[in-house]
Design brief:
The complex is a heterodimer of chains A (about 90) and B (about 350). Chain A is an alpha+beta fold and about 90 residues long. Chain A has helices at about 5-15, 20-25, 50, 75-90; strands at about 1-5, 30-35, 45-50. Chain B has 9 helices and 17 strands. The chains are: A alpha+beta (about 90), B alpha+beta (about 350). Strand 2 (about 30-35) of chain A pairs antiparallel with strand 17 (about 335-340) of chain B.
Chain lengths: ~90, ~350
């Protein structure tokens, strides 16, 4: 099940006692956190856009064209994400 | 020669000091990169001063071949009657954002964001302007088409004199650019059209002194959505609304970039604006009409959003439904929690 929410709205939900919102809000770090949780609202794993995705698009947080997109394919965003999913959810 | 070099150094130093004072640079704080101003190497900035403004590469649209251009003529044949609709503009001030731009900028600069008011509180539009929202030929419910950008920009000038449908605010992924509409419902008497526009307003005043550091300011709404109700019997537009969505806590991105001599800095914030809207005609009419063929409004908006963003083809559930569905199917939950929304222009 995929869902998305901004942290302001998540924190409001957490404050009202929303079970899933409380778990996600407690584990959120700036600026984007991708989190996997069980239906029992236990956090399984997470990926942070700053910490886990080393390559930054040249238009982001800098003037356009200032930086080149560099990085090995193994560090590309799809690769990092798919490896993470495989590590936590792939069946033997 | 030595005097000239000294003078240039003094000028450069003065420009940097001016930028720092106006933007009240406080440095990186508490790991909050979005709130920071970002100095770049002096050689890069200096090299850029005399060149063209750098332009971001917009995110690609998800527009399929079935999405044709809409009407591009003067007056659409459907609007054969005479429409003279007075449209009111409302635009409430920006809230204080999480990145506290209101504290970091000099009041003279922050006023560009804070003191925004519609250029024209009221303006009368005719069938000529409203034709920009119509397809070349009216088809079936669910039909999607691209709006006439130039005419849309003209209408956006009721808010501010410098709108654009090409998003360029620096330091972020721009776009996707565009303006699209969908035929939501038809009856023998009416057609209900829903639209979504990605727009941006360039705020730097025209009269900013040439001897001051260069500042570029943009106000980027999450998007503007609306509807237009066409009376097919009279050939008139009976209702029109275009406004900023308020379903999320934050819905506008503010950007300020300075380009002093040898120094480039950015400041930004994501804020909430309660109301930014153009409206005219009879709002209650939509509910009064019996629609033999219609899509729910939420589905229409969702399908329009997919014309902009390919990732929305994933089956994203509203947050309040995710846990129930996960439990009923015994599936894990994948949740993206972000500082700002990524399915619009506010982040």
């Amino acid at each position: 099940m995929c869902t998305a929410i901004i942290i302001d709205d998540l924190q409001k939900r957490a404050a009202t006692g929303d079970e899933l919102a409380k778990v996600l809000a407690a584990n959120w770090e700036y600026p984007v956190e991708m989190m996997f949780a069980t239906p029992a609202c236990t956090l399984v794993s997470r990926l942070n856009s700053f910490k886990d995705f080393p390559i930054m698009h040249p238009d982001v947080a800098a003037l356009a064209g200032e930086r080149e997109v560099t990085g090995e394919e193994e560090h590309s965003h799809p690769s990092v994400f798919l490896k993470h999913v495989a590590a936590h959810f792939a069946k033997e | 020669m030595k005097i000239r070099a000294t003078l240039l150094s003094v000028l450069a130093f003065g420009a940097v000091v001016a930028v720092l004072c106006l933007m009240q640079y406080t440095g990186q704080s508490s790991g909050d990169a979005s709130a920071s101003t970002n100095p770049i190497p002096a050689d890069l900035a200096a090299a850029r001063e005399s060149g063209p403004e750098p332009q971001p590469t917009p995110v690609a649209l998800n527009r399929g071949p079935e999405v044709l251009d809409g009407f591009r003529g003067d007056v659409h044949p459907l609007l054969s009657g005479s429409t003279r609709m007075e449209v009111s503009a409302e635009w409430t001030p920006v809230s204080e954002g999480r990145d506290e731009l209101h504290r970091k900028l000099h009041p003279r600069l922050y006023a560009w964001f804070k003191n925004l008011q519609p250029t024209r509180p009221r303006q009368t539009y005719t069938e000529r302007e409203f034709s920009a929202f119509l397809p070349e030929t009216l088809g079936e419910v669910g039909q999607v088409w691209a709006l006439d950008d130039d005419k849309i920009v003209s209408m956006l000038k009721q808010f501010h004199p410098r709108p654009s449908l090409h998003l360029v605010a620096a330091g972020r992924r721009a776009g996707p650019d565009g303006a699209f509409a969908m035929l939501r419902a038809v009856s023998p008497s009416y057609a209900d059209i829903v639209f979504r526009i990605h727009a941006e307003f360039y705020l730097t005043p025209d009269d900013w002194p040439a001897d001051q550091p260069r500042f570029h300011a943009w106000y980027t709404p999450a998007y503007l959505s609306g509807r237009i109700l066409v009376n097919r019997q009279t050939g008139t537009v009976d209702y029109f609304r275009m406004g900023l969505p308020t379903d999320k806590a934050l819905n506008v991105h503010l950007t300020l970039v300075s380009r002093g001599i040898g120094d480039v800095r950015q400041a930004r914030d994501i804020v909430r604006v309660e109301r930014m809207e153009l409206s005219g005609g009879d709002a209650a009419l939509v509910e009064k009409i019996s629609w033999p063929k219609a899509l729910p409004l939420a589905e229409t908006q969702s399908r329009l959003a997919k014309v902009f963003f390919k990732f929305l083809e994933i089956d994203w559930l509203p947050f309040d439904q995710a846990l129930v569905k996960a439990r009923s199917l015994d599936r894990p939950i994948f949740a993206v929690v972000s500082w700002g929304a990524f399915e619009d222009q506010s982040c």
